[in-house]
Design brief:
The chain has 2 domains: 3-128 and 258-311, no CATH class; 137-257 and 317-369, no CATH class. The protein has helices spanning 14-17, 260-275, 322-325; strands at residues 3-7, 24-28, 35-42, 49-54, 56-57, 73-78, 83-90, 93-96, 107-113, 119-122, 125-126, 137-148, 151-165, 171-184, 207-211, 219-223, 231-240, 249-258, 291-293, 305-320, 359-362. It is 6% helix and 41% strand. It has 371 residues and is mainly β. The longest helix has 16 residues, at 260-275. The radius of gyration is 23 Å and the shape is globular. A hairpin with a 2-residue loop joins β12 and β13. It comes from Roseivirga pacifica. InterPro entries: DUF4249. Pfam families: DUF4249. This is DUF4249 domain-containing protein.
């Protein structure tokens, strides 16, 4: 039977930060369309999000046609029947209507109702016990070997590690990593630093606070309980030095403690990425999460793709400057290219508000920045 190369695009930005490389999958031509539901609820009192997408055919935009589901009804339901509503924000991401959190004495599941009435649900999930210690990151300047024009060269960067304490029981971790920095428009207004433009609105800015694109990797750890109370370091990521380190660079690590079944799911996804296998191929194996179609599925054999979890979360952030790293780098200034004629168009080098990133906070960074 003729097969179609398709791609499960929902895993590109699981979310939610969870950041996994895109994977290619094989589906039979007459296979039912697959929907992807990914997200979680945690003990953090904040806005949570769930992504809904569908498997798509390879296209001309970076090899994939993004096919987000933007008109579904998304709720998280606890075991007492109370609902937490989510509304669509952008690119298939549904956000809770306000800050919400998981409580230790409740169980939760996600329910997604498509516009045609088809319903998908996860199974119920409960909040796992907290880790023996909250998220703690450490960093140091270092080097790694990279291949450039068939030659091994050393690249300078920052090695970020997590400090983990062993507990009385095995625990299962995933880290969501985010990066933030200050970007400068060198041809912009003549402010000398971000403080000089504090409070300005609706005007060109020289300095903007940016949330970068998330790393396309999956960070997992199974913490074996063979020596409770001992601590050790596990390397999370290596960040090459670039102009993003010109002023302040922030690494945020959200440590997620999860149940073993959730961990095994992400472990299988990681293995699938490493082996570049297909979701339904015999090699390596199918990856099934906890999403099932409820409508017209009495025996529960029709499943969706993805995973809804309930995790115990803690966050640590490290603020880095060139001084704290012991470096003194100068970076080439941003320049405005010559105009081909006519009225010159606004340029990022003149106004940092024009830079496009997952978040451009302009002159209003998150409250934790302390700006």
């Amino acid at each position: 039977m003729k097969t179609l190369r398709t791609l499960l695009y929902g895993f590109v930005l699981v979310g939610l930060s969870t950041c996994v490389d895109p994977y290619e999958f094989e589906f039979q031509k007459d296979t039912e369309e697959n929907f992807v539901i990914d997200g979680y609820l945690s003990n953090e009192h904040r806005v949570h999000q769930i992504r809904v997408s569908r498997t798509t055919h390879i296209g001309d935009f970076n090899g994939v046609v993004a096919d987000y589901v933007t008109n579904a009804t998304v709720v998280v339901i606890d075991d007492q029947g109370a609902e937490i509503s989510f509304e669509h924000d952008d690119a298939g991401v549904y956000k809770s209507l306000g800050p919400v959190q998981a409580l230790p004495d409740k169980a939760y599941k996600v329910r997604v109702t498509l516009i045609n009435g088809t319903v998908y649900e996860s199974n119920f999930q409960t909040l796992p016990e907290a880790a023996p210690m909250e998220s703690e990151l450490i960093y140091e300047l270092g080097y790694q070997d990279v291949l450039v024009n068939n030659t091994i060269q050393e690249e300078q960067g920052v090695k970020v590690s997590a400090v983990v304490e062993k507990g009385a029981e095995n625990q299962f971790y995933r880290w969501e990593m985010n990066h933030y920095f200050i970007i400068e428009s060198d041809a912009g207004p003549g402010f000398r630093n971000p403080q000089e433009q504090r409070g300005l609105t609706d005007t060109e800015l020289r300095f903007c606070f940016i949330k970068d694109y998330p790393p396309q990797e999956l960070y997992l750890l199974e913490n074996i309980s063979n020596a409770p109370g001992d601590t050790y370091e596990t390397e999370i990521e290596f960040i090459p030095i670039s102009n993003k380190f010109e002023y302040v660079f922030v690494v945020e690590g959200r440590q997620l403690v999860m149940a073993e079944d959730a961990y095994r799911y992400w472990e299988d996804i990681q293995t699938l990425a490493e082996n570049a296998g297909g979701l339904f191929d015999s090699a390596p194996f199918p990856v099934i999460g906890n999403i099932t179609r409820v409508t017209d599925n009495p025996d529960g054999t029709v499943v969706g793709l993805g995973y809804f979890g309930v995790y115990n979360a803690s966050v640590d952030r490290k603020f880095m400057t060139q001084a704290s790293l012991g470096i003194d780098e100068e970076f080439a200034p941003c320049t405005v290219p010559p105009s081909p004629g006519g009225e010159p168009r606004p340029h990022q080098c003149q106004d940092c508000r024009l830079y496009e990133f997952p978040e451009n906070y302009e002159n209003s960074p998150p409250s934790w920045w302390g700006y």
